[in-house]
Amino acid sequence: MPKRTNRDLLELRSLEVQTKVNAYAEGSSLVKLGHTHVLCTVTLEHQVPRHIMDRRDANGKKLPPTGWLMAEYNLLPRATHERTQRERQKLGGRTQEIQRLLGRVFRSVVDLDLFKGKTLVIDCDVLQADGGTRVTSVLAGYAALHDLCNRMTRAGTLDDWALRAEVGAVSVGLVDGEIRLDLDYLEDSSAQADINIIATSTGRIIEVQGGSEGESISQDHFLEMLSVGIDGVKTLVERLKPQLK
Length: 245
Fold this sequence. Notes:
The chain is an alpha+beta fold. The protein has helices at 50-53, 93-107, 133-155, 185-190, 219-240; strands spanning 15-19, 27-33, 36-45, 68-75, 119-128, 167-175, 178-181, 193-200, 205-212.
């Protein structure tokens, strides 16, 4: 694997964020992390799944109503170098896993009690992929949710700010024995180990995904990668915030 020529080992790719990119969605964003581009919309549906309607405590008593959040992820056919088939009949394992990740992440930071009886649907569509599609989807989802909160609080249709934390995500890899931050596709495909770190702007960890490829890594290497990733998340959130309008 060649050395990086256009950025240092711990240097992030460029980050561009646009909000209000969809005229119909309650919240929307387009986020570009290097050459990975993700379009995200948030839809507010006036219903919740049955398992939310029927929530009960340990004694069988029905719990008060709350809201729900779910996420869908899609890699568009020409997001990659060669055309990828659409997942029409059945979602692939990777797609399902990313959708569940996104749902968990945003449910951990959105105050769903402010959306009683309603469901927030986060749709993340990858327009162009060059590594880090799931972490870019986290950034795009957060930006779109921020857009929704902005619109609804200004319109008086949301009683309070619904985001309880600022969220970011980044990839970290061990490539040629070197720790690298924010992997592109070539680095990701040849990494000896890589992890995706989702955390808040204060460094609180929401989720860590990943592992080694072919050979185990030391605990020290893992902890160093984790530390580098958390610092990277903090920097990304600081870059993202001024672009949220």
